[in-house]
Write a structure and sequence with these properties.
This is Cobalamin biosynthesis protein. With 136 residues, this protein is of the alpha/beta class. Helices cover 34% and strands 24% of the residues. It has helices at residues 22-35, 56-65, 74-78, 89-95, 101-110, and strands spanning 10-16, 45-49, 69-72, 116-124, 128-135. It has a 5-stranded mixed sheet, with helices on both faces. The chain has a single domain, classed as Nucleotidyltransferase, domain 5.
């Protein structure tokens, strides 16, 4: 079951390479949460691209924290291009969207009805990206 807008306040959007070590993604997300003044308990859901639904690091992160994992199609994420702080031509070529983390965080909240805004724009390392959005 997808959480309702009342239950969803903070979304962490992520994207990563297929073989990203789980601890690398977890460390990046932890640093992003700290940078936004949030804790793992503040997060309502983890969001990513449908193509990433079975990526081990993403699945492990969701399971570790008990976060629902919401995945969205590239066509839906591409609609957020004008709101992205960074556009990746590589992501566009491979996935059909110029960004995953920011777009997934925003789209996962807005598809529940209402608006969302980025609390923390895209942060990345060589393996992964993360962004944080809030409803309202």
């Amino acid at each position: 079951m997808t959480p309702t807008i009342e239950a969803v306040g903070i979304a962490v959007g992520v994207g990563c390479r297929r073989h990203c070590p789980p601890e690398v993604l977890a460390t990046l997300v932890s640093a992003a949460l700290e940078g936004a003044g949030l804790s793992v308990d503040d997060v309502s859901l983890l969001a990513s691209l449908v193509d990433k639904a079975d990526t081990p690091a993403i699945v492990a992160l969701a399971e570790r924290h008990g976060w629902p994992l919401q995945t969205l199609p590239a066509a839906q994420l591409a609609l957020y291009e004008h709101r992205l702080s960074h556009k990746s031509e590589a992501a566009r070529r491979v996935h059909g969207t110029p960004g995953v983390a920011e777009a997934a965080a925003l789209a996962s909240l807005e598809q529940q009805g209402g608006s969302a805004r980025l609390l923390l724009p895209r942060r990345h390392n060589r393996w992964a990206t993360v962004a944080i959005a809030t409803a309202g």
